[in-house]
Specification:
globular, alpha+beta, 7 helices, nine-stranded mixed β-sheet, five-stranded antiparallel β-sheet
Length: 425
């Protein structure tokens, strides 16, 4: 069930066939009567844990599954997506093999069977079923929609543009969630949100803006203002990135600097000019939080990937970048379109290289379903920790060497950690 196509259907005959294949051999004469699943007791818990983070009224995708009628109406498409393994989406491995995370959970085989049985009898049980579903806790705080200037990307395939956005007076100093409203864009590769903490930094950014006749200014790589600090990153596939309760990232300063990376697909292939882009950054803010986080990238660079290979691997081992102990609250892995997997391992400095424990990983990387995931229980890293970042790519679609870089057709191997200072440090 992709975001753009919710029309896939299985016939009721197919649904019943799936049901029969799952239950064949499980029932025998004298077995207890099977009680068919009902919406409120059996399906709502699955919907809440695995669907509602995105598929709800006002959620990050257009298809809401937060009522019984909606779930039944789109039920066959739900089954297709579950059996294909395309839902729930997201690149971070939530199987439990490498950490337990908040937000949506994978749907187990037993849960798929429960959904299949429910849909097979939904019409018959509808009259006596209970319409009940609750909404998961979402972003907290004051919502501020900060519109970027309307901008038409250049005819280059990759256009990095920085925009100065001033904060309204009614917002707090702590960012508790980040969302993006894509009003017309189909070419947005990422947004990086930076602070402009001083009047001098704001003035420098405006001076760069004034030098260019178009809105904003070109800023591939670093935004060009030395005092900036990274606050968060938004990429395709992410809805609203809601930080854990009572945590946030300090904004600081009167304005933000937003780096937008537009990738104009086929810009050299036809005479059609790129369309104007309309994007708004939605910040949720609070006056104060108990725990202040910051994103820190663990990244490899300078690598090159040979073409035509099913799997090309690269690893980087480095000491912890933190001078003292830190608490890791969440992770955000990032690669480009050739990515296959990414994994971050941690080990003490006394351990050998093979002794690393998995901190976070993606075993089925998809560029269009990137996500930020926060741990159920944050992890503590000692300053003596050794980090090993492992990435793999599939280059069979390329006939030339692919290099590390900022462009969409380049590749990356990075994983951001959302960290705070450990208590007592």
């Amino acid at each position: 069930m992709s975001r753009g196509d919710t029309t896939m259907r299985l016939s009721h005959v197919t649904v019943l066939a799936l049901l029969a294949s799952m239950t064949s051999g499980c029932l025998s004469h004298g077995a207890p009567e099977v009680i068919e699943p009902i919406w409120a007791d059996d399906i709502v818990p699955i919907v809440e844990s695995s669907c509602l983070p995105c598929h709800r009224a006002g959620g990050s995708v257009g298809l809401a599954l937060d009522t019984r009628d909606a779930f039944v109406r789109h039920g066959n498409a739900v089954l297709v997506a579950l059996h294909d393994g395309t839902m729930p989406p997201g690149s971070v491995d939530r199987s439990g093999d490498c950490g337990e995370y908040r937000s949506y959970k994978p749907v187990s085989r037993a849960q798929v069977e429960t959904i299949t049985r429910f849909l097979a009898t939904a019409e018959e049980t509808g009259a006596k079923d209970v319409e009940a579903v609750s909404t998961l806790p979402t972003a907290k705080g004051t919502a501020l929609a900060l519109a970027l200037p309307r901008y038409t990307p250049s005819t280059q395939k990759d256009d990095h543009r920085c925009f100065v956005v001033h904060r309204p007076a009614n917002g707090g100093d702590m960012m508790t969630a980040l969302g993006v409203e894509r009003l017309s864009t189909s070419s947005l590769h990422h947004l990086m949100i930076f602070s402009l903490p001083t009047a001098s930094a704001v003035g420098h950014a405006h001076a760069l803006d004034d030098e260019d006749e178009k809105p904003g200014y070109p800023c591939e790589g670093h935004p060009g203002v030395s005092a900036t600090e990274l606050l968060s990153v938004w990429t395709p596939g992410q809805g609203t990135i809601a930080f854990p309760a009572n945590t946030g990232v300090a904004i600081g300063g009167p304005a933000l600097l937003v780096q937008a990376h537009f990738h104009v697909e086929g810009a050299f292939d036809n005479d059609q000019p790129p369309a104007a882009e309309e994007v708004a950054v939605v910040l949720y803010t609070a006056e104060e939080v108990d725990t202040v986080m910051r994103p820190v990238p663990i990244a490899a660079s300078g690598f090159s990937l040979p073409p035509g290979e099913r799997r090309v691997e690269f690893s980087l081992t480095r000491p912890s970048p933190f001078a003292g102990p830190v608490v890791v609250h969440g992770v955000f892995p990032h690669m480009h379109t050739l990515g296959a997997s990414i994994r971050l391992e941690v080990a003490s400095e006394q351990d050998d290289e093979a002794a690393g424990q998995c901190l976070a990983q993606s075993v089925r990387w998809r560029f269009d379903w990137q996500d930020t995931a926060f741990f159920e229980e944050p992890k503590v890293l000692a300053p003596s920790t050794r980090l090993t970042l492992r990435c793999a790519w599939d280059t069979r679609g390329r006939d030339e060497v692919t290099r590390w870089g900022e462009g969409s057709l380049d590749e990356m191997c990075s994983l951001f950690l959302f960290v705070s200072v450990a208590p007592g440090a």
